[in-house]
């Protein structure tokens, strides 16, 4: 039997397990690290002060200094962030 018409879930599964580890450069020259599933939305939250970390509400980010895409569990993202 052919696979015609059957969904390929491998891409969806890998996207679901994808996290971004990021480093922001802040206006005072310091760096802030974090992780998220959606980097664009999270960066906007940090820049706008809405749903952002206390640190980036005090010291606004000026750019994403570096980011890495991790295809693994949230536990790995937490370990790498620290």
Automatic annotation (TrEMBL):
It holds the Pfam family GIY-YIG. CDD domains: GIY-YIG_UPF0213. Gene3D superfamilies: GIY-YIG endonuclease. Residues 17-82 form the GIY-YIG domain. This is GIY-YIG domain-containing protein.
């Amino acid at each position: 039997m052919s696979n015609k018409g059957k969904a390929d879930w491998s891409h969806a599964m890998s996207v679901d397990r994808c996290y971004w580890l990021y480093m922001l450069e802040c206006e005072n020259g310091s760096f802030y690290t974090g992780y998220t599933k959606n980097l664009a939305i999270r960066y906007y939250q940090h820049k706008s002060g809405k749903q952002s970390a206390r640190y980036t509400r005090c010291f606004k980010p000026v750019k994403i200094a570096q980011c890495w895409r991790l295809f693994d569990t949230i536990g790995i993202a937490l370990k790498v962030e620290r």
